């Protein structure tokens, strides 16, 4: 796929999901590098940067995108020849894709250690990483039970309970409003993340914050499972993570809405869970408390404050 | 309608809603008294008691039923002749019905005083008393805005937004999970109640407790609008208010459920909001803090501990 | 003083302070009753009611006024002759004045029991009742120390420290902002009240809520000293206690304010401390938790819900 | 037993326990009344009052004593002849003793309703009333498990686990420090009370407050089981409940203490649990929230503020 | 200005403000280095160290002083000749001054991103960095409103509202006690800092802690704007940040104080806001949560634990 | 002592205490290296690794053991000859032992700075590091008072009060249940740690969590004194710190237990204090907030995520 095609597919949301977006962008960059005919290193770098900018411009709020692109482009910080630069880009791209593909399984291995026999878990939405932890614990023969929410308005809970059912895990299915009713019986909450801000706040599917709040009230730990590329570097610069409001139609059929002129549907897709309601974030680099997001951005993702400006 | 018919209609839930059940039972008792042919006062009282027991036995968990029946039967605590007793029963019954019919409008008048120009309100489910307060404030010309939740699984929020829309009140419609996202912009939460326990805990539609918890976190007051016959006298004796679990089908279509043998739907209809998250309960007897439920049961409803045993 | 003169003096705030207003109104009513020439009981009652309405209309937000007036007018609930009615009014008025004059000393006796040798107290503003408790404990020979705040913008703290100094009580004088800095060394907070709502919320001098909040954070008890006529009966009907905003000039001299067109001074005289930050309210009828304000209004002040409508 | 003998036995703590003290005092008063030779009602009353004062003077901090004595003496509020007065005293005394003897079983019946199959309970110290609830639930065939603490320094936990063991109830025995470790698995805490103050604060065996605090943190309800005569009337007057410090020897053998001149043993027998950490107080008059202690003192125990002064 | 003159001016507080002190010290060191005649590198270093010690000794509690001095002195960790050392010192000094002068504008750029149209802000005291954020957002055309406190006893709020007024920003001016009254309408609190401890605690103008506490209660975020040289390195060693108590005269005129022998004025200039009430600290190095103060001290300021001993 | 002997002594708990175990293991490794006859570097490294594995296998839950062993083994990351490797191992071993032996005194120096004249401290169990801080402050002439708990079931408090008494420090000795009773008079809590997890949770003697919780409720700071080798690296991988349950006999004599078939003793030796109840952890590397455990493990202890897998 040409770079322009990949860019278009990300823009149109044909390519979706933090991991898939990241890998597609990286592969597009690698492909572009492979075919880039440049007379000298400076030209090579300049052209690559142009390509990188096109990719990061496709979805400004997708946090994995700049993290992925930058991970590859770092190869061009210093180099001697066009060929060396090309090789470095290709090597980094391959490493990123490999790393990304294994990230979830590393997270699963770490997260599963927190699950014990007899536990009652709760999960919300349909996070590959969070479910990874639960499925891995099940594979290890641990016996436990899961509560899964419905997740209005898109109903991702249905996908989740199918997965859990197929694995043979005892699952309770509840409406989103029923979390506080059952949380006193829950030992551990496992959720994913769409983005994590520098203050450790976790942006995730609408409803997550209420669940974490109810868990905190009942002294139930909350574990967020997230690849490090979910950490949002520009929040260091004070940039707010934009919360997308989706189509009203998801909540109220257009036909009904039209009969109700005084009613407006508000449909935010995500909410923000403050760091104080999160016990641990399990990443492929290990489990860390949410307060260390700054360290992840600087040390694991390798951003420098100057680059972000 | 004969007493046996009324009893059957309450049992089958043809007659529903705390107020309607209470009034139907009272009217059935009055009717029964009118036609009761008794030779002496003792016989009259005994027969009336039998009738009362039939009515209260129809739905043991409907909290308005014993309150209503007892309110009438108290007429028989002392009397001199069959006729005097009959008259007393009829008078009390008429008074109860009248009082009950005006209760909501009295609540509305009191609750509306808490609403000010520019306020943002939030309501959950479709409570006649809570909506009464909001509509009354609107009638008084106050300008405000309302957030209304969807209320899964039965979707009573749709009824609520129709009512608000018809009154011309600016309304925002959100999924149940989105309450914490918006609560910082809300000034006041108004909800109804199905029952109120002696410790001031409010039993109401599933999700209410999460809303009240989120409101408390944001220093937003929560007002419960409820007729006094919602206060559950037998909680003084330690009796727990039973939380009904409704048909799984409401949450997950049977056809889907059958494909998922490891999944069980849990569908509690109500939850319990602790008194510490409720600022005031507005009743037709005035606004009181939740901690005074015992006083309402004893002084407003007139129960004596001996009667409850 | 004629009734019209008393009314005028209350309106112009010549007569100030909850106790003084209450006693002046009661004495004006007694005086009016003494001289009222009425042909029959009904006329007497009607004229008295007219007088009562004039008085309560002078300062609609002064909570002691309706409490005092009603305490006297209750004499006219039932009577047989003009003379009997007049006597009853005079007797009740005399009783009210006597009771009111002794209320603070009774509060002092109760409140002082909470102070122990070695205690560190904190007080805000210049409450006769709160200072009464402190001075009484000092008279009993208890050794303790007091923190007193400055109380911007009116500086009532200066009056307070003069009183404490004259009594020979070791006192620390601090700005309002310094309360949280010292509160960990404080054992007990004593403040007064301007009004108490049915949910136990205490309306008192601006700054009280911050102090009570800081005290709660440090597990320091807060005692409110208040005569029962500070309890606001109409809050049972949902009526909000109006918070007076006073002259901007108190905060920013007019000359300076005029140079600053984009600046508006907000000068609320009171704030509202929620019941959960108050340990006890010491009244002349005994110490009660704030949650029982409803009981005080109904049982001590004798209001019936019907009268309030 | 003569009145003077009873008084001596209470003073020397030969007669101990709130219930036993109360009944002994009442029986002594009845006995005294039976044999009192008085020429006229006034003399009878005066002599009885003298006897009552002797009894209440024996242990000024035993809260059941004044409650019991006053319950009998109220018979002398109005009467016509010596014989009528004597009869009234005897009748009230008999009623009190009967009531007191049945109080625990009434509490047990109410408290047991809060226990459900599968529950995990926790109890501290060795409260007859709290254990009554647990044993009654067991008698009703409910299946549950209990955690019982050791209760340093006197080790009353050993008595408790013997009782539970003999009843065949599955019991876990833990040191006092381990409560927070296990509390997340506990559904309900049941403790007794030595006294309850007007603000709902519960005075009970040292350690109770830490347990209630840990329970609150984990959203675990705390139920206090206590006869109404544990409510301390004079706390309405601001009187503090004195916390007894017991013999250091209970904590550190005297021989060891003597080697350690810089070490002082502090051995308070009780601590004070604030009302906000208590869900319900189960009394023989029904279950009430702690905020209503004032109502119990005034309405159930019948104290008037004037009598207390 | 000679080094000794600069030292004297810092000591006498002629030179004030963390930034100005820091830059003056650095310039004095540069000046001293420029003119220092040393035969060999070791002598040069020894003399420079003597000069550095003089400067840091002038105000032991000014946290920017050691940070600034050390930033320059680090140039002498390794070097080869007197000239190289001198050049390194001069280069570092110039860099520090430049960095310091741009720090506030970098902070403003980051902080302004947190302000949105329609926001209500609150600020306390007169912090250049906090005001910088507000003014920058205004320059960007954002529409918002500000609450500013009076800031007793020195009244810095007056300076603040003049600045805001001159910029044409709608401002509300309130007494320090009124913060909790208005905080529910506030979206974001912006304050500066005098020093930040290793545990993230923020030392700032007296009253800041109360504001942050009230903000936390109402789920309002608190942002601290502070240059990195406000982070106090020696708190890593357990050194406490000394809170200066200023002249009593600022609070109570001496003449009045003299009449009040039992009254002592306590006038702490700062208080300590715990990390849990601070959402973010915006520095010129980016926004970080308060829990990372240790990382700032070690990584941004470059202190090694050994140097601090 | 031979490596096998050291291993056996650690296994049998003859060698106990985090510091002693760490130093014994390091010395055993050094000894083994000194005598290891290897033909080439690879063999040397392989043999050393075998020895290291034997040592870390002796007590899998002793957190100082892998930290110590790894600290030495890091010498073998790169080297050129057997002799160079041997020397490096010996140098690192010597450095570790020296560092470890001075760690407590460095901690004491830092911790003591937090203690001021007039303070009241509280300590639990018998931590060398926590007592070190207290004793150092006393040596510096500071005047303060200490509360020490009994520490059931092993009674380590007795050892603590002997130490404090011998130093001439005024000490109060209390049962574990009495902490909340006295905590309002305490200024600072000092405890040790057995292990610290990546989320900052502190594993320490059973009862510590209740104390920290009570301290937090009363705004009393909690300082944990712990050498860096107490930080548990494998918690980064999600590994839970195992809480040892010790012999029931410690709590209930076997003879009594045998009479009580329905009673089971639960005797966990440690509990887990969440990071939010800990103000600072004082290590020999400086004071840090608990949220930075990850940084300690990575930067001070030098673990890489890859090594831990």
UniProtKB/TrEMBL annotation, chains A, B, C, D, E, F:
The active site is at 125 (proton acceptor), 194 (proton donor). GO terms for molecular function: ribose 1,5-bisphosphate isomerase activity. SUPFAM superfamilies: NagB/RpiA/CoA transferase-like. InterPro entries: IF-2B-related, IF_2B-like_C, Initiation_fac_2B_a/b/d, M1Pi_N, NagB/RpiA_transferase-like, R15Pi. Catalyzes the isomerization of ribose 1,5-bisphosphate (R15P) to ribulose 1,5-bisphosphate (RuBP), the CO(2) acceptor and substrate for RubisCO. Functions in an archaeal AMP degradation pathway, together with AMP phosphorylase and RubisCO. Reaction proceeds via a cis-phosphoenolate intermediate. This is Ribose 1,5-bisphosphate isomerase. It comes from Methanoculleus oceani.
């Amino acid at each position: 796929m040409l770079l322009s095609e990949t860019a278009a597919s990300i823009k149109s949301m044909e390519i979706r999901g933090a991991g898939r977006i990241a890998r597609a962008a990286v592969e597009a960059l690698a492909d572009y590098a492979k075919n880039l005919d440049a007379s000298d290193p400076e030209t090579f770098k300049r052209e690559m940067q142009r390509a990188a900018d096109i990719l990061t411009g496709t979805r400004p709020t997708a946090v994995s995108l700049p993290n992925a692109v930058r991970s590859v482009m770092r190869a061009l910080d210093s180099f001697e020849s066009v060929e060396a630069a090309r090789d470095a880009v290709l090597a980094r791209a391959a490493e990123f894709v490999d790393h990304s593909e294994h990230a979830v399984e590393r997270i699963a291995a770490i997260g599963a250690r927190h699950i014990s026999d007899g536990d009652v878990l709760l999960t919300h939405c349909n996070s590959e990483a969070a479910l990874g932890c639960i499925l891995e614990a099940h594979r290890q023969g641990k016996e436990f039970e899961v509560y899964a929410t419905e997740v209005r308005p898109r109903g991702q809970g249905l996908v989740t309970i199918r997965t859990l059912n197929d694995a043979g895990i005892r699952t309770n299915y509840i409406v989103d409003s029923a979390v506080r009713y059952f949380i006193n019986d829950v030992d551990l909450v496992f959720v994913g993340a769409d983005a994590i801000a520098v203050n450790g706040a976790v942006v995730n599917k609408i409803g997550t914050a209420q669940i974490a709040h109810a868990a905190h009230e009942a002294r139930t730990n909350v574990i967020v499972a997230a690849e490090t590329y979910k950490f949002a570097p520009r929040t260091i610069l004070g940039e707010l993570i934009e919360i997308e409001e989706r189509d009203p139609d998801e909540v109220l059929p257009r036909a009904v809405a039209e009969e109700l002129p005084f009613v407006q549907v508000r449909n935010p897709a995500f909410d923000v869970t403050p760091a104080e309601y999160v016990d641990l974030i399990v990443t492929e680099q290990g489990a860390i408390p949410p307060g260390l997001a700054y360290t992840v951005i600087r040390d694991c993702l390798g951003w420098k404050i100057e680059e972000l400006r």
